[in-house]
Amino acid sequence: DAKTTQPTSMDCAEGRAANLPCNHSTISGNEYVYWYRQIHSQGPQYIIHGLKNNETNEMASLIITEDRKSSTLILPHATLRDTAVYYCIVNPWGGSEKLVFGKGTKLTVNP
Amino acid sequence: NAGVTQTPKFQVLKTGQSMTLQCAQDMNHEYMSWYRQDPGMGLRLIHYSVGAGITDQGEVPNGYNVSRSTTEDFPLRLLSAAPSQTSVYFCASTLTRLSLNTEAFFGQGTRLTVV
User: Fold this and answer.
1) What is the DSSP letter of A88?
2) In this structure, are residues B35 and A36 in contact, taking their beta carbons and an 8 Å threshold?
3) Both ends of chain B: CA-CA distance in Å?
4) How far apart are CA B56 and CA B35, in angstroms?
5) Cβ contacts of A45 on chain B, cutoff 8 Å
6) B43/B4: higher pLDDT
7) For residue A60, pLDDT beyond 70
8) pLDDT, tens digit, 9 for 90 and up, residues B37-69
9) In whole angstroms, what is the distance from residue B89 CA to residue B4 CA?
């Protein structure tokens, strides 16, 4: 499985866009980029995933670079409830036995 | 649609006691798994199952047993609890390991303390 690198922590002002980067320079051609988040004391929550095209859903947008070595999760209008640890992971086509969660990025949205 | 339901939410055990953490999903998912989460360690896979009657070990299986008699349920058993098993336990399910859409659904966790 490809490894990912994320900043340990980030801050964002409420109402502004939060841009969370992820480096996955060893990603293989059949591996998807997934983002999850974990709000304090809760179970991880799926946000979005993509292969090579940019993706958008009701929660966020995912921008993947053309060489697929990095991606950015965008929360367009961050709220206090978006304060959480955000995990970027890669999964091979067809899934895997396990989800490898790294340390993630602790995003703090400030009022 | 309840998703993934874990019980209990909190539990305190004495060393040597046994207990079962319950996990149930109502999404007809084939794949279910158990993780533990410790401070600074991230999520670690304990056991997983790719379907009823099939289970396998993850990264940290020692001290835990599982079974999968139905698609819906995947209980985790601690036969003789140890303080090292103090942790937060999460159950997760996905439609199938072989699916393009491998979004995982997690339960809300069981906080276990072994004294």
Assistant:
1) E
2) no
3) 36
4) 13
5) 106
6) B4
7) yes
8) 998 777 888 999 989 999 999 889 999 999 999
9) 13
Which of A44, A98, A101 has its CB closest to that of B48? A98
Evaluate if residue A94 carries a pLDDT over 50: no
pLDDT tens track for B5-37: 999 999 999 999 999 999 999 999 999 999 999
Question: How distant is the alpha carbon of residue A15 from its chain centre?
Answer: 19
Strand partners, A42: none
Quick check: A44 and B104 CB within 8 A? Answer: yes
DSSP A59: S
Task: Work out the minimum CA distance from B106 to partner chain A, whole angstroms.
Answer: 6
Cα of B20 to nearest chain A Cα, Å? 19
Closest CA to A85 of A18, A17, A16: A18
How far CA A34 is from CA of A2, A73, A79, A90, B69, in Å, comes to: 12, 10, 21, 6, 30
Chosen for mutation from B43, B47, B93 (greatest number of chain A CBs closer than 10 Å) is: B43
Q: Is A57 on the interface with B (CB under 8 A)?
A: no
pLDDT tops 60 at residue B4: yes
Peptide bond before residue B39 is cis, with ω within 30 degrees of 0: no
